[in-house]
Amino acid sequence: MTNPSTLYRGGVLHCPAEPSATALLVRDGRIAWLGAAADAPAADRVVDLDGALVTPAFVDAHVHATDTGLAMSGLDLSAVRSAGELLDAVSAFAAGLPGDAVVLGHGWDESNWPEKTLPDAATLDRAAGGRRVYLSQASIHSALVSAALLAACPEAAAAPGYDPSGWLRRDAHHVVRAAALGSVSAAQRVAVQGTALRHAASLGIAAVHECGGPGTSDESDFTGLLAISGDRVPEVYGYWGELLGAAKARELGAVGAGGDLYADGALGSRTAHVSAAYLDGEPGGCGHGYVTAEQVRDHLLDCTAHGLQGGFHAIGDAAISTVLEGFAAAAQKVGTDRLRAARHRVEHAEIMNKRLIAGFVEYGIVASMQPAFDRLWGGAGRMYESRLGLSRSLESNPVGAMHSVGVALAFGSDSPVTPLDPWGSVRAAAAHHNPAQRMSVRAAFAAHTRGGWRAVHLDNEGVLALGAPATFAVWSTPAGVDRGLPVLLAEDPELRGPEDPTPLPACRATVLRGDVIYEEGLS
């Protein structure tokens, strides 16, 4: 049998074009039939959905697969709440490592510690028994490192962002990061990449956008990940972020020359470039801008010449303003219509205002955003408020305002900065800490499904429709839940806020172009 077909029947399908559909037939990787289960055609295989929900599968529009896999299999520091707890975790983890292995940890966030004092490099040395230690902050834009690792990277001392305490940022951080991740063998890297992608599939994610580039990942890491894309794991669409690197991006197999092309740093590390000084940092400190408007212009022109999508990582309003100045200059050369057609991207876009949002509309920029940032760091008493003040913090991550004026949104996690959690991200967008920035559940779901496909110019993906690719997820909803997100897209529920404890749907299967890449409990 060369092209066996599969009938999925007895489910609740999120299919606006066929609202009464309870079954779908998959043949040759596409949806060959949709309708009522009683009218279904014969198939080579039949799967009984037993009332489960079927929706388009999710797309995570910003991930770092190797870092995600390392965080899942390594030292997770997201739960520590003091320097003492961090040191205890390092000591316990280091005791179980072989030879001279490097202690790789991720996820500490001092903004939620009662006492925000950090351990220094010498203290980390003692905790790890003299091992080299690299502990990335939640934002991945800074790290705590041990004296042993500093000694192994003497060139870091001359780089911007160096601090003998061992908390490194900017270029100094990139130096020690490269050395630390260089300790991961090729076999380990493949293993952790597979771990990350399989986990994504188990959450109903059928595609991810890997955001790489110098300072984030090396070329072999990037190309190795693309090589396993779609092989019983989600598809990977790679973005390589290097200035004037359109030719390099294409050579590496990337779909765009963007992703982690840094226009600035991150709020967690106080390196995001903001227009008004941080309230909890050095007096007058506004972070750092890494590109000029002229460099942005030239990069966009390079992308245009190569027919490739471009983009930038830009978090602070000053950095985003610089990026938009570059767009304006590029438009003078090639015209606004050509820029719009390319669907260039900005990753994160956290600190926005009406003028910046208008620029996204004018140039057709796709905003690749992470609603979980607001869930974790927005609202009173959290990191955004301590960095920016409450008023500015409530204006951050304005997904609702951007959606309402037609900015194209593609949602993701920035994993491991925040966990892979698509339904959680939908809830976070619909229940933003600032009610003025909320969007409907249906619109948030679309941004996390079809929005991700449109961001890579695949406009016919992300829907359950006759002839469309058979890429979908099957969900169980918690027993007895009749409100919240499990109402799932029929109408927008009343949400209690970002911390709503209502259980979210559980993935039972993920199907990518007809191939099952994850299955749990279907027959």
Automatic annotation (TrEMBL):
A single MF term (Gene Ontology): hydrolase activity, acting on carbon-nitrogen (but not peptide) bonds
Positions of the Amidohydrolase domain: 45-518
Top-level taxon: Bacteria
Gene3D superfamilies referenced in this protein's UniProt entry, alphabetically: 3.10.310.70, Metal-dependent hydrolases, Urease, subunit C, domain 1
Family matches, as InterPro entries: Amidohydro_3 (IPR013108), Metal-dep_hydrolase_composite (IPR011059), Metal_Hydrolase (IPR032466)
Protein name as it appears in the record: Amidohydrolase 3 domain-containing protein
Organism this protein belongs to: Micromonospora inositola
